[in-house]
C-alpha cells in the first residue's frame, strides 16, 4: 500500500515542484476520462449513426448531473479535509470524506430510480424529438442506474490526491477509460448491441474505476480513509451541518457540470429549431470534443486545489497566490493550443465521429472553429472558480458559474442567432465565456484596489501612533 502513496509535503515543497508533481498524473487521468467520453462518441457515430449520436447528446445532462454531484462532494469534502489535515485533525478529515460518500451515494440512488421510472417523459423534457426518443431511452435505461459509481469515481479522485496518491488516482481513470474503449468496440461492432452496448460499456468502465477508489479508501494504512459513521442524534446533527458546508463550498463545481448540461440542453433546443436533427448531431460532436478541454482545465484547477487549500489553512498567502497564478498561466497556454488545433483541424476532428455523407458533417466542420474562440476564456474561468472554492470564497465561485453557465449563456444562445443567424449559435458559448472573464478581471482589480487602500490606511495609522 505504501507504494501507492507519493511523498508530498504541501507545506514546505516549492510551489512549482509541488504543482508539477500533482499536475502530470492528474492531467493524464483526466485525459483518459475524456477519452472515455470521446471514444464512446466515435463508436456510437461510426457504428450506429448520427441519430444515435444526437440521442446520446439529449440524455448527456443526466450523466453530467451525477458527475456534478461527485465533484460537489469531492471538492467540498477535500477542501474541508485538507484544512483539518493542515491542523493535524486526521480523524475529523476521515469523517468528512466518509460523510460525503454516504450522502452523495444515497442521493444518486434516489434520483436514478426517479429518472428511470419516467424515462420517456425525462427524454422529452430534455428535448428529445419523436425520431430520437427511442434511442435516447434505450441508452438512458442502461447507464443512469450506474450514476452512483460515476459520482464515486469523480469524488474519489480528490481524496486520493489529498492522501498523497495522484498516481493511483490516475490509474483509476485509466482503467475505467481503457475498459470502456475495449467494451465499446466489442459490444457495438462484433456483437452489434447498439445503444444498449454503448451504455453498458460506459457503465462497466465507470463501476470498475469507482470500486478501485473505494478499495483504496478502505485500506487501514491510508492516512485519509473511511471512518465509521455514528447514528446518534448529535452525530446526525453534526453530519447535516458538515454536509451543508461541503455543499456550499462545492456548489460551484456542481454548477459547472450543470452549466455544461445547460449548454447541451439549450443548445439542443436552439439547434433543433434552426437546423433540425442534423444540427443536434453536429452540436453533439462539439459536446463530445468539449470534455477533453474541460477536463484538462479541471485537472489544472484540481492540481492546484490541495496546494491552495492546505496553505490557505496555514495562512500562507504568498504560496496560495503563486499556486493560483501558476495554474492560470498553465491553463491559458493549454487554451491557446486547443483553440488553434480546433480551428485548423476541424474537418479531421468531425471526421473522427461521422462520415462526410451525413449533412451534420458540414455543419460541424464550419461551426467548430467559431466554437473554439472561447477556449482561452474558458481556461481562465475554470481555474478561477477552482481558486475561489479552495479559499472558502464559495459565493464568488457560485456567481461566476451562474454567469457563464446560465445567465449569459442562455441570453447569448437565444439572442445571437437573431443577430448573426446560424453562426450566432456557435458563437454563443464563446461570448458567454469572454464576458465572464471580464467579470473576473473586475473582481481581481477591485480586490487589488481594496488591498492597496487597506495597506495605505495601516501605514497612516502606524505614522500617527509613532
Automatic annotation (TrEMBL):
One of its GO terms (biological process) is response to antibiotic. CDD domains: MATE_MepA_like. InterPro entries: MATE_fam, MATE_MepA-like, MATE_MepA_subfamily, MdtK-like. Keywords: Antibiotic resistance, Cell membrane, Membrane, Transmembrane, Transmembrane helix, Transport. The keyword Zinc-finger does not apply. Its main location: membrane. GO terms for molecular function: antiporter activity; xenobiotic transmembrane transporter activity. The keyword Transport applies. It is a multi-pass membrane protein. It comes from the Bacteria. PANTHER family: MULTIDRUG EXPORT PROTEIN MEPA (PTHR43823:SF3), SPORULATION PROTEIN YKVU (PTHR43823). This is Multidrug export protein MepA.
